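[recover] target loaded
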């Protein structure tokens, strides 16, 4: 015979993994299958949450426009000195787009600082907006009249508050006859006003007055609105956060401006206004220097023209009065040199005037021009000194002619420069070009129904699966054979799967003879009460019974070397299935030709007599204490070779006085030799002390554990109690296993059928 080696109760098993069962993929799938209904509920919860999100989330629309920002230079650079400019960075252009200089006029144009929102209950208010009947029912409730349950709007034409009240919400309550009240933190600000009435409220010497003009109210009486004047900084910050600028790459000159909002038409208008304002700001910046030069030449032209006319008049008058026509050659040559130097000084002076607006006096170009002008003036003074030595008339004539030539040259240069700037201004092309203006969007970009549904379900499933994983990893509940072997230190003889047929027992159904194993027969008649309550008789082909047949084959090895032929079957807690194992194992042993005695030692809750169709008593307490005869107590069953001692009568004197250890031991010494095997079904170890007491007289013991119902500390405590009482536990049985029926067994049953 074989010998089954086992460790003492509570001792560690050798060669078994110490990792939780969830580390194995198959075990993790089994864990999910055990909680399939939880996963289904979680899936439905995710769909429900996603639906609520889609209902409560206002649709968001996106409008976009396309701009080109070219690097053509500014108008002031035309014809001027070349100055190095770095290549344009579109990130800087994006910052300009978000600047207050661009967004402030747009905020003022669309009154974006005014915020008006009806008071709603989150989610529920959004649901009632879509269900008019529900909205009507809620609006009739007195306590709910302050909330907006359907569409409600308030149009404010003019609204201003003190700076101290900016970003604070005022409460506007709708009254009858198009009237309303306004309060702040429960304190009335406007007692009563009508729609269309311009209200001014003096708030004290330290506060600016408040003004309000409500143009229209579309809401039932009693509905409250939140009315606030946002600060400019908050409004621009909110608008900037919804503004998106995109470009294809760093070298691209195209900028795509996108803006998101809840009103599609307003969103498109806003993004177009931002693009136009950006273009205006850029154009103003580009033409600022040119405008300064134009203003300078336009202001200088009348004076230059006046000097030119005065010089002509002075020369004509001098010639007429003195009758002078020509000068000598030397004087004329000196005067020509003076004129040439004066023209050069004028050119340098104009150039100096042009760059003085751009650079400081310490700039090298300004210093150079100043030095050149000083040197040329010194040379001109030398020629003038030589001319003074000529006759007085010739000298005066030369001076007048020189002044006329210089005035004419200055006048011509001023007119040419002014005409050139005006032509360039008309032909100037701005650096910003609007390619595609924004159109009104038709479909919202958010929320995305498909993404919300998938994201909601996946998120809830992930959280639930994470919970299952952590609970399984941290839990001490015995959920499989590996955890049972680790916790008990004992071998697990058998995994008995859940049986659907066991739940349907007791309805006296007939069994098709073709479904029985070979050698069994029902005769096509209704089964006896015992047959209808015992799975091994009513459905012998069940996979649970097949596993018990395997245990029957192992019993000879399990009980080898035992002190007697008594087998105790117990469990740590109630409802573990020990009575199911005891009764069906006894039937299988009897069918194999063994004389079997089944003893119900659960004095309080034993039901073996009911399942086998026997009377309750007299039973074990009566026969052990000598209150009944052995032949009267050991009752035969409908199964050949199977006998049973029921639990006995409950209540009364006998029910209060249970057999002692000596009495039960003496009884077992008498009755056990008369049978091939005696099976004792005891109550749970942790419930009463019966198992520890009676187990001393059993040569072998088996602990039945139901999957997912017993914690490791509970099993350890049960084994400890049995060990202290001297009970020898041979191994365990895992009952109610969730593992599926193997396919090879289904194939085997098909072949039998």
């Amino acid at each position: 015979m074989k010998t089954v080696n086992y460790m003492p109760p509570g001792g560690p098993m050798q060669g078994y993994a110490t990792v939780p069962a969830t580390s194995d993929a198959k075990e993790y799938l089994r864990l999910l299958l055990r909680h399939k209904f939880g996963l289904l509920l979680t899936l439905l919860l995710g769909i429900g949450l996603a639906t609520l999100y889609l209902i409560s989330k206002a649709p968001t629309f996106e409008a976009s426009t396309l701009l080109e920002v070219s690097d053509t230079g500014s108008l002031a650079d035309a014809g001027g000195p070349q100055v190095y400019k770095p290549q344009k960075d579109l990130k800087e252009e994006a910052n300009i787009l978000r600047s207050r200089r661009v967004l402030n006029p747009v905020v003022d144009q669309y009154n974006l600082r005014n915020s008006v929102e009806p008071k709603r209950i989150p989610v529920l208010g959004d649901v009632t907006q879509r269900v008019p009947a529900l909205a009507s029912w809620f609006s009739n409730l007195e306590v709910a009249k302050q909330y907006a349950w359907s569409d409600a709007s308030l149009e404010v034409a003019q609204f201003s508050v003190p700076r101290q009240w900016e970003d604070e919400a005022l409460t506007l309550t709708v009254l009858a006859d198009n009237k309303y009240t306004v309060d702040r933190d429960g304190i009335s600000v406007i007692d009563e006003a009508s729609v269309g009435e311009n209200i001014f409220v003096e708030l004290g010497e330290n506060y600016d007055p408040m003004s309000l003009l409500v143009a229209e109210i579309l809401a039932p009486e009693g509905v409250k609105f939140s009315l606030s004047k946002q600060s400019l900084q908050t409004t621009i910050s909110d608008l900037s956060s919804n503004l998106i600028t995109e470009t294809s790459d760093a070298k691209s000159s195209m900028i795509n401006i996108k803006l998101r909002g809840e009103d599609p038409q307003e969103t498109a208008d806003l993004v177009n206004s931002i693009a136009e304002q950006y273009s205006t700001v850029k154009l103003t910046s580009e033409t600022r220097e040119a405008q300064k030069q134009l203003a300078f030449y336009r202001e200088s032209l009348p004076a230059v023209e006046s000097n030119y006319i005065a010089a002509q008049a002075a020369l004509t008058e001098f010639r007429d009065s003195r009758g002078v026509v020509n000068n000598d050659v030397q004087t004329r040559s000196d005067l020509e040199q003076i004129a040439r130097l004066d023209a050069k000084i004028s050119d340098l002076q104009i150039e100096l005037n042009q760059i003085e607006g751009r650079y400081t006096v310490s700039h090298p170009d300004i210093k150079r021009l100043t030095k050149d002008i000083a040197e040329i003036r010194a040379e001109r003074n030398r020629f003038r000194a030589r001319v003074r030595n000529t006759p007085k008339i010739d000298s005066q004539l030369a001076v007048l002619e020189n002044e006329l030539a210089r005035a004419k040259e200055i006048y011509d240069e001023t007119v040419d420069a002014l005409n050139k700037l005006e032509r360039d201004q008309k032909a100037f092309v701005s650096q910003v070009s609007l390619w595609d203006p924004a159109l009104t969007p038709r479909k919202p970009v958010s929320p995305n129904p498909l993404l919300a549904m998938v994201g909601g379900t996946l998120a809830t499933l992930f959280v639930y699966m994470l919970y299952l994983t952590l609970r399984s990893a941290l839990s001490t509940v015995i959920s499989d054979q590996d955890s049972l072997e680790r916790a008990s230190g004992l071998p697990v003889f058998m995994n008995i799967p859940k049986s659907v047929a066991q739940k349907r027992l007791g309805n006296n159904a007939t069994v098709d003879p073709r479904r029985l194993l070979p050698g069994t027969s029902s005769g096509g008649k209704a089964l006896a009460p015992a047959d209808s309550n015992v799975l091994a008789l009513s459905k012998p082909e069940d996979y649970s019974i097949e596993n018990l047949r395997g245990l029957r084959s192992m019993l000879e090895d399990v009980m080898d070397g035992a002190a007697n032929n008594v087998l105790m079957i117990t469990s740590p807690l109630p409802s573990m299935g020990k009575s199911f194992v005891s009764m069906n194992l006894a039937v299988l042993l009897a069918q194999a030709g063994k004389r079997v005695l089944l003893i119900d030692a659960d004095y309080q809750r034993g039901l073996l007599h009911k399942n086998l169709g026997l009377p309750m008593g007299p039973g074990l307490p009566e026969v052990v204490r000598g209150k009944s005869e052995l032949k009267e107590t050991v009752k035969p069953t409908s199964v050949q070779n199977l006998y049973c001692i029921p639990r006995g009568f409950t209540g009364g004197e006998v029910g209060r006085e249970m057999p002692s250890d000596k009495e039960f031991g003496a009884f077992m010494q008498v009755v056990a030799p008369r049978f091939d095997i005696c099976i004792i079904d005891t109550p749970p170890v942790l419930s009463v002390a019966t198992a520890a007491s009676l187990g001393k007289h059993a040569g072998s013991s088996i602990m039945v554990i139901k999957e997912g119902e017993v914690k490791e500390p509970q099993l350890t405590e049960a084994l400890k109690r049995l060990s202290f009482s001297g009970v020898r536990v041979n191994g365990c049985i895992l009952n109610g296993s969730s593992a599926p029926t193997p396919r090879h067994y289904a194939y085997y049953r098909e072949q039998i059928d």
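[recover] notes: The chain has a mean pLDDT of 81.
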